[in-house]
Every structure is written in C-alpha cells, then in structure tokens.
Amino acid sequence: MTRLHDADHRDFASDNYAGAHPEVLAALVDANGGHQTAYGADAYTARLQEVVAAHFGDGATTYPVFNGTGANVLSLQALLPRWGAVVCAESAHIQTDENGAPERVGGLKLLTVPTPDGKLTPELVARQAWGFGDEHRAQPGVVSITQSTELGTLYTPDEIRALADQAHDLGLRLHVDGARIANAAAALDLPLRAFTTDVGVDVVSLGGTKNGLLFGEAVVVLDEAAAPGLAYLRKMNMQLASKMRFVSAQLVALFEDDLWLRSARHANAMAARLRAGLDALGDRVHVTLPTQANGIFVTLPRAVSAELRRTWKFYDWHPESGEVRLMCAFDTTEADVDAFLAELRRLLDAQG
User: Residues near 140 by Cβ (< 8 Å), separated by ≥ 6?
Assistant: First the structure.
C-alpha cells in the first residue's frame, strides 16, 4: 500500500498523534507467529505481570485493556458499588473527554471540583466528600486524580499521600489516571511506585498509547481488596482482548527496560525546549501554566494561531482567550521545535 501521509511531519496537538515506537513494533512482530492461548493465558501476559510488579510492587496485578477510557471506566466500576460516586477535578479527563462513559457505561456519578492547576487537594476533595449515609446523595467512594494532570502539572508523592490518607480515613479509595504517568516519573525523577504504591494509591490506569504504543493500556490493581470482580467487569465492558498477547507484548517492550523512561524524558525535554523558546518571545505570548511534563499552555494572538495551523496542528484550550495547548511526544525533534518557534516568531514580527 502507498503511504498516505508525510512520515517526516510531526504536530504539536497531542502525543496520541505520534506513531508507534520502532521497539514496540518489533515486539509485536516477535509476538506473532504460532499459537498462544487466548484471553490472557499467554506467555506475554504472564511476563507483563512480572514486569509491572517490578515497578509497582509484588502485590500488583495487571489487566491489559484496549484504551485509556476503558481503563478508567473499568477501574472506577471495580472500585465502587452501584450507588457510588467519584470525586475528581473539573478538568479531569473522565469528566471532559470521555463522552460521559464513566456515568453512561460505568453507571457511576462524577462529583467535580474546580481547580486552578488541575490538582486536587484534601481541602478541595472535602467540598464533595460528604453526605455519607444520605440516601438522596450519590455516595462518594473514590477520589480520582491524574498524573501528570490534564493541565500538565504534577503531584508530588507527599501530595498524593495526603489525598490517600484522607480518602482512606473516609472509607474511600484513590485512583490514578496515569495516561501520562511516564512523563510524571521522568519529571519527578522517581520510580513509579514512589508516587503510587508507596503513598497509598489503590488502582492505576497505566498509560502506554501516549508513550509509543500502537494501542493498549492496563489497569494495575495495587490493593487486591480494592477492586473485586475486575476480571468479570473487563469482559462486560468489552475490554477483554482475545489475542491479548499483542497488547501485553507492547507493554512489556515499553516497561521491561527503560524505553518508557527514555521516551518520556525526551518528550519532556522537547517541551522544556519549546517553553524556553516561548519565554524568549517576551510579552508577545503568555504561558499560562507551569510546564512540568510534556505539555505547554500558552495564549497566542488568534490571527497568529490561524496562520500557524497552516503547517502545524494544535488544540484550542480556551478559544475565548486564545489559549492553546502544545504537546510534545517521544518522537518530537529539536528541529520540529525550532521550526515551530521560528515560524511563530516570524508571524509575530509580521503582526508588529
């Protein structure tokens, strides 16, 4: 088949735009051929259990799934009774970008809290963690946070520990949406367990697609008692892959050695380079949030954004203010960043 796109072009819209890492593609080829038992009883899924446990601790159990929304819905369903509710940030992916799947498919209620930087605190959680025993109110049962957040910010281990302690004291569980957990680990320079298992997190949605996988994520249960019935729910939610070896083989390739960390560090470094270039433009642009992982949020003149989009794709974040999001991926190059900045500078100069 003739290639239908320019394989040398990269955008700044999302790390989901990137292709699969060559090492991941090679792992898929290696996993092919012959027969392996279906539905997860294969050698690659068994190896994945060992690989993930090495990162999160011996008690971790891993359930490969197709995608991030599936991982989140499955996690929250397993953590909650039918009448349960989830406290989350107003900007959380489960609230803004999953088309109501947690509520429509998961059958649960989201209790959102506005945050200035995408991060929950015990004080913010307390705004929704009430009404226990009141049959007229959905019962809070889970606090869900994202690491790194949808606004590109990071939780420290101490901040997560405070949320876990509060949740557990109230009889709640703590879930981490880790779609970009590798970028958080790279930025914090910490092992994955340091801000999950070791600080009281119960379940993690482990991301892979944004860090070089072709497809696939996983639910990682850190406290076995927290998520009973997850295996059955995975099938009910249409997240059980028959040829699971091809999901697991990718995750093994990503997490067995340091590919996950190398890729995330590179994406973060490209974002830091882009941020430095934006800062050098002075008050002609305004970076609106800290750049702590691989995302930058910046306000640009609308006419300039429109012209930039002739070459690069990126997302509006708040169209009314001109704020946009720029994301770097494992395959973003210094040349990509420098070309984007050069064109932005040219357009700003032309605007006067």
Answer: 84, 85, 86, 87, 111, 128, 129, 130, 131, 132, 170, 172
